[in-house]
Design goal:
The chain is an alpha/beta fold and 496 residues long. The chain is built from 17 helices and 13 strands. 51% of the residues lie in helices and 14% in strands. The longest helix has 52 residues. Bound molecules: adenosine-5'-triphosphate. Adenosine-5'-triphosphate (ATP) binds next to helix 8 and helix 16.
Amino acid sequence: MLEVGAIWAFTSTTMASLMFFWSMYKQFVPYQVRNYLEKTLKKYLDKFFGTTSNFVCIKFPEYTGEGLSKSRAYDDIRNYLSSRSTARAKRLKAKESINSKSLVLCLDDKEAVVDVFQGVKVVWSLFVEDKENQSVSKVGRYLTLSFDNHHREMITETYIDHVLREGKEIALKNRERKLYTNNSRLDYISMRDGRWSSVPFTHPATFETLAMDLDKKEDIKKDLIKFTKGKDYYRKVAKPWKRGYLLYGPPGTGKSTMISAMANFLEYDVYDLELTTVKDNAELKKLILDTKGKSIVVIEDIDCSLDLTEHRKKKKEDDEDEEEKKEAENLKRQRAQKESNVTLSGLLNAIDGLWSACSDEKIIVFTTNFVDNLDPALIRRGRMDYHIEMSYCRFEAFKVLAKNYLENESHDLYGEIGRLLEEVDVSPADVAENLMPKSDEDDADICLRRLVKSLEEEKKKKAEREARMKKKKAEKKEKKEIQKKVNGAEENGKKI
Ligand SMILES: Nc1ncnc2c1ncn2[C@@H]1O[C@H](COP(=O)(O)OP(=O)(O)OP(=O)(O)O)[C@@H](O)[C@H]1O
């Protein structure tokens, strides 16, 4: 009995002393010193007794030491863990931003997430440091990876790489996509926003809603997919990983809509480059170098932006309406030219410089209403690899629009509409406008009848235009013949 009492007294005194010693140690010995002592002790124990524990633990802090900037690895791992269906990270929290599709891993302190890679089980947990040990302004948080020491090599050489790569890809996919525009020179000089400013890219266009020939649409999608998968191929053939698309066609045929559909399909950002506000070639080059990968750089209405037609071939136009349009375009171009010193060769250099010098995976798109106005050098293959003609609305495109706007796939009027669309040239924008219900009473029938009426009016206008043209031609020919006769008579008079 006496012995039991003595053992109990001895044990409790020892325990109390140890606890007292431990609390004094934690309270008075600085964290850095404790850390050092514990590490050294572990090192010696490992040396004398072999590995003390079979488990290895790697820490990934939220903030890096230098200037306490956020660590990329920490974010990538969080993205990766958020995507694990096996993880206990089921309590996912949507990010505040409406546009972001990302879900953020929401773990409690010391809560674990188990992952299995190549049959090996690893455990991730979140640790939050005691307040006393935290850095001045940031919360000391880190993710720890624990695994069996037997798999150390595979984990450190393959698994961590895999986690970081996947995490990066998830971040890229989930990021809020942006529509950038180059700032005017005044903004730029005052350094308010740098060279580009951005807004969230929210255009809803997709290839499904794009009205155009179905085969053409499929070809474009296949081409885009091939491009995105072409990293190794481009490297193999020693070509920069870029592709140029030229979209041409009359106004309202969907060139801008196509760009949005491409961006949504590829999940790329869009840089809308306004050439007229670019001061000179050097500034243009810097702007292009400032763009990131996985993006589409767009120059819309390139024929109107600047005088980029140094060797343009002049075409004789009979149609006076066309002449007037071209005259207006020329005026626009001359006005733009006054504000900018960007030249055709500057643009060509910037584009080629872009592909060779900047980040990979970039698409450049030019749009124009007048493809003949462009210098052949600007649109040659290799620079503009894929030329896409956006044409007037025909029956196939109409069916897509009817589905989009009326959720309608057949109607008695479809036959008549199909015939009329073969006879007149109207843009998908015009067709869409007629198909759009203007009030709650407007049903599919009313909208389709409105379209038929508008197409018939267009057909009438076309007939009148053709009659006018014919008359003008006949008058021109008659004038020429009279002139010829007058000239002949004068010649004869001279001879006499
Ligand atoms: N092919 C199309 N498919 C679906 N919608 C279209 C199409 N073409 C035009 N639209 C509709 O018409 C509107 C104008 O089209 P968009 O701006 O894409 O034409 P654009 O060819 O770029 O015209 P512009 O040459 O005048 O810039 C779009 O907002 C869209 O609603």
